[in-house]
Design a protein that fits this description.
The structure is a homodimer. By secondary structure, chain A is an alpha/beta fold. The first copy, chain A, is about 35% helix and about 20% strand.
Chain lengths: ~220, ~220
Amino acid sequence: MQIIELHASVTESNDRDADALRAELKKRGVLLLNLMSSPGSGKTTLISRVIRDLQGQVRTAVLEADIASDTDARRIESLGAMSVQVHTDGMCHMDAGMTARGLAAMDLDGVGLAFLENVGNLICPAEFDTGAAKNVMILSVPEGDDKPLKYPLMFQTSDALVITKTDAMPYFTFDLDKAVLRARNLNPEIRIFPLSAKTGEGMDEFERWLLAELAAWRKNG
Amino acid sequence: MQIIELHASVTESNDRDADALRAELKKRGVLLLNLMSSPGSGKTTLISRVIRDLQGQVRTAVLEADIASDTDARRIESLGAMSVQVHTDGMCHMDAGMTARGLAAMDLDGVGLAFLENVGNLICPAEFDTGAAKNVMILSVPEGDDKPLKYPLMFQTSDALVITKTDAMPYFTFDLDKAVLRARNLNPEIRIFPLSAKTGEGMDEFERWLLAELAAWRKNG
């Protein structure tokens, strides 16, 4: 496992870099998913579960972005999947240039799904196109159903919303209907997947979506 | 309740603004606490509990900082406490100038404790002195005990660490000893308060600390 120290590229060129990365990944048949959430929402646990469940069906690579530490990349590697840890030089988001440099450190031949686990933050990551094919936001039940009211841009820029830790629902006052309604008010097209990576409940539907998106990505254009 | 739209002041002058605000609050006998955490860690629930528990003992004011919405300020006002909502113009932190402008919108005569509920984020808020007397970090049990490894600066700049939602401990794999050890490795002086604002367990010790800090703040200098 490698640790890469990154510095941000100039903001104006980010959209160009993002489009270039997306085109390259399209050519190679790699579906890059940009996972964004608060710290501790369960991104790494979700990815770990997907890797285990889809083993043998699709090859997976994971780019772990953090300010410090390499605990997440170690967890992913312990599952036998490919992972690179990037450090963002104190910054609270990843941009397209940083993502491209991180991915370049991995051998993507034969990879289908690539996950970018963005820095834990509901604000800045929503403002930067990373070059991903899809933006996926994760909201965990303990965080509360009011998050769409407070962080609207994150919900607006996401193609899918995964509501994690549903097994903890009896323990918290989280109104799923309210959360779904608030998210759809901001983004009527958003796909919503309530699930528990711990018990496995709801994983099927999310994984079917991932595989369908991968198939569509490889077919079109 | 007011909503104030704020824009950041020039960074270089922030330390000067912070010292000026601190001196003014000292003169007025107001202990300002800067609460920082991930989204959904339970800052508003913690403040609400403190307001209820200390009613009649100390007057409290709350400055709610968010990108959008006024849900938190409404919750605080429903308890009969003074609250102002500030919007940070998309920014993921509060600085001293923004804090001073928010506080100026409240009548602080007779107020003892003032809470700044910073934007939910473990990165940027740690980098800006708000003028608070004490920095208090909140980490909730569902977020996991690995957060000191990932967000070291936040733990280093905090005077106290409140570990919330301890009632949910049986539901999550959170090692309290490990969290405490990791926090102390970064900051040997940090005060640590595990508690549940829901059941009330551990609130006493935290509130005694708040009152002791307020007494010391009003006595010294």
